[in-house]
Amino acid sequence: MNKHYWTWPIAIYLFLGGLGGGILSFALVFDILVPGSGEIFAMPVFIALVCLGLGCFFLVFELGQPTVFLRVFLTATAIIKWGAILLSVALIFGFVYWVSCLPWDFVAFLIPLRGICLALAGICGALVMVYTGVLLASLKAHAFWSTPALPVLFTVSALSTGSALCALALGMWPFDPATFNNAAGLIVSLHEKELIYEALHLIDMVLIGVELLVLLMYVLLLRGSGNAVARAVATRWVSGKVAPAFWGGMVIAGLLLPLALYSGGGEAAAAVAPVLVLAGGCLLRFLVVFADDRRKVPGEDRFYRRLPHHDAEFLTAWKNKEHLY
Amino acid sequence: MTRYVMVMDQRRCIGCQSCSVACRTWNDLPMDIVYNPVVTEGVKGEWPHVHVNYTPLICMHCEKAPCTLCCPTGASQKDDDGTVWIDYKKCMGCKVCVQACPYGARDTSEMSPRLERYARKCTFCRDRRQMNPEAKPYCVDTCHQKARIFGDLDDPESEVSRIIGSVETVRLMEDFGTEPQIYYIPALGGQR
């Protein structure tokens, strides 16, 4: 039975979670490397918060009984519970950090807390990126997911999309270069922003290269895997029904084209390439989430194929309670 | 200690689906969920040496159940007697247990109302056994071929202990390491 239990809300959630986590990690890393530069990332951090929030919304929206959701924080050691906690911490401290960047006087008391907030948000963001992969990789019933390389692939993709979005939104409002003082007490120059901008492009090029390598290794090696289910999915990606989306959408439009645009340089390329990277990252999550094949007992497929499905007339009647007198 | 297991005698199963119907009746299942399908493999072999293999599937009530480990709300749990069950009030319907089960034993209904889309599964008729400790799961009571045998594996005198100790049995997909508690006597096996 090829019933997909997790569909587009989960794919979007995994994408947005990775993207938000990636942005927060980059904000932290650059704040450490170039002390005080974290404020340039005010807009990217805001977008990261929106992404994480939207991701949480899709996650809760997809639940069968959303009202029970708060139990996640009370019990168990399950992976989803850790994901929920990491997401919450990243959201809360990321938000405090972002508020402290606002150019208003009444939030000035938050400025001393800025460093610790960004550190917590950045670390939890990095863990959220890894968590999106670990969540799927821990489900050993699905041979295509349960490989140690899936968290690596998701993390690299999350970092790549994160740096792409950082490059797009770097230095926007509420960052104000005229009033901005960095940690050393020096007025930050626009030159410094340009340096970070160039660095982000360079990092994204490297990450795209790594992602290409990891993705191709992942799919092509699973295509020769000893596990029949993983082999079937990988074959579907390489030469089957999903091949146009994988080769055309993911590899060419999502990785090779942005790589070429980045290396070509220029204003237009710098605007288009990150968008392609983001679209490619989203497509990757969709492809992976829908690759949820499970090993079947001989005859199981035939049994479920013969059952009536959504559109069968009497099923619709049942759903509309027309069978009740 | 009690450890409930079930033995499926595939030599006796004729694929009549009575157990599926009984289960559906007792548990009042929505139309799109089957707890225990009997799947058919074959016809195998060449005339006159042909046979059809019926495999009754059900929740395996694994010793190391991956569905209880991954449940983020503590709704999926394992009783002391080995029964894996879901507390519907605690289940938020995230479907991670459905994805974690290698046997496809769990399902969520698309026909149930929005706020009742929790995961469902076979519980060895936990409610039925709570009402009457002597009672067996309804599918076992229903099976007119006596192809399903239910009992306590920790009791050396029980029928399941004697069968598992004396006849060749197999378990499905043991390589996942979940230690399933449903033992099958293969249709063409049964010797030791």
CATH fold-type name of one domain in chain B: Alpha-Beta Plaits
CATH topology term of chain A: Formate dehydrogenase/DMSO reductase fold
Arithmetic mean pLDDT of chain A:
88
| Helical stretch tally of chain B | 6
Number of strands of chain A: 0
CATH level-1 class of one domain in chain B:
Alpha Beta
CATH class of chain A: Mainly Alpha
What is the overall shape of chain B? Answer: globular
What is the number of E strands of chain B? Answer: 9
What letter string, H or E per element, gives the SSE order of chain A?
Answer: HHHHHHHHHHH
Q: Main β-sheet of chain B, in a few words?
A: 3 strands, mixed
Mean pLDDT of chain B: 91
- The CATH homologous superfamily of chain A is called Formate dehydrogenase/DMSO reductase domain
- Outline the biggest β-sheet of chain A: none
CATH architecture of one domain in chain B: 2-Layer Sandwich
Spatial separation of the terminal alpha carbons of chain A: 33 Å
DSSP summary: helix tally of chain A:
11
Distance between the termini of chain B: 28 Å
Shape of chain A: globular
Sheet/helix structural class of chain B: alpha+beta
SSE arrangement:
The complex is a heterodimer of chains A (325) and B (192).
Chain A: H1 8-33, H2 42-62, H3 79-101, H4 114-137, H5 149-169, H6 190-223, H7 228-239, H8 243-264, H9 267-289, H10 300-306, H11 313-319
Helix pairs in contact in A: 1-2, 1-4, 1-5, 1-9, 2-3, 2-5, 3-4, 4-5, 5-6, 5-9, 6-7, 6-8, 7-8, 8-9
Chain B: E1 4-9, H1 18-27, E2 38-46, E3 49-56, H2 66-69, E4 76-78, E5 84-86, H3 96-100, E6 107-108, E7 119-120, H4 126-131, H5 138-142, E8 148-152, H6 159-166, E9 182-185
Parallel strand pairs in B: 1-9
Antiparallel strand pairs in B: 1-8, 2-3, 4-5, 6-7
